[in-house]
Amino acid sequence: MGNPSLFPLIYSGAPQDVLLVILNPLERPETPKRAAEIQERLNEISFNASLIGELRAIAFVQRLIDDGMLKAPIMKKYRRLNVHAIRGGQDLIGYGLASKYDTRWRLLTELRDIGRAEADRWLRECAVHVGTSTSSFDIRKEFLDA
């Protein structure tokens, strides 16, 4: 269980922009106390672990590039990657583990509406960065400097 790997995208000659859709919260405001809450948080952490590891590695490489520490021929292997993120995970904090198995139409349309609202917000605020030399999601701040 986990997110798909980003590294094949980086090294396959894919576009310079990558859009992440974050569905699981990376952080929670409260510490889980009941067994079901702890299990749910454990599942979220396990699911996010590979993504966080790769984003930290990307942030580290970007820091090396920005600081001029990577020189040819190594520089040919690495390139700047612009990361963008639709951060829907925080909007889903109130949905427990049971919601992952709930197929009721009301819940599905509610989740669709939440996703559309977050995508619309991202389009208004962040889409202008796609195709430029800037990320709209600061992975260094989020994953490396913390």
Report on this structure.
This protein is mainly alpha-helical. The chain has one domain (7-144). Helices cover 44% and strands 8% of the residues. Strand 1 (17-22), helix 2 and strand 2 (82-87) form a beta-alpha-beta unit. The radius of gyration is 17 Å and the shape is globular. It starts with 6 loop residues before the first helix and ends with a helix.
Secondary structure layout:
Layout: H1 7-11, E1 17-22, H2 35-66, E2 82-87, H3 105-125, H4 139-144
Parallel strand pairs: 1-2
Pick out the low-confidence regions: none
Helix/strand order: HEHEHH
Note the total helix count.
4
The share of residues in helices is 40-55%
Shape: globular
Strand count: 2
How would you write the strand order of the largest sheet? 1-2
Features:
2 strands, globular, 4 helices, 146 residues, mainly alpha
Gist?
The chain is 44% helix and 8% strand.
